[in-house]
Amino acid sequence: MKKLLVVTLLIISSVIGKAQDKIQVTEDDYTNSEVSMADQFRAEGKIYVLTGVILLILGGLIGYLIVIDRKVSKIEKQLPNDNN
b/e map of 35-57 (b: 16 or more CB within 10 Å)? Predict the structure, then answer.
């Protein structure tokens, strides 16, 4: 019953709701070579904060993977001893 309700709600929301309105693409959009958001971040000095946050998140993920790998390796070393 739950699955049917979820599927029904998803179908209704996809028919009724819109994620965003379509914007007309012009010829100027194809020749645009500047990224205004990055330029604004760079001008305000926020690009360094953004880079730092990204590096912090990636460092945390890599650290977490290393810790998990060590734990799994420790458990794998213990398994053959338990079977004897």
Answer: eeeeeebeeeeeeeeeeeeeeee
Q: Cite the DSSP H helix spans in 1-84.
A: 2-16, 27-31, 36-44, 46-83
CB 41 within 8 A of CB 35: no
Return d(Cα 83, Cα 44) in angstroms, integer: 62
User: pLDDT of the chain along its 84 residues, tens only?
Assistant: 888 888 888 887 776 666 566 778 888 777 877 777 777 777 888 888 989 999 999 999 999 999 999 999 999 988 876 554
Q: How does DSSP classify residue 45? A: T
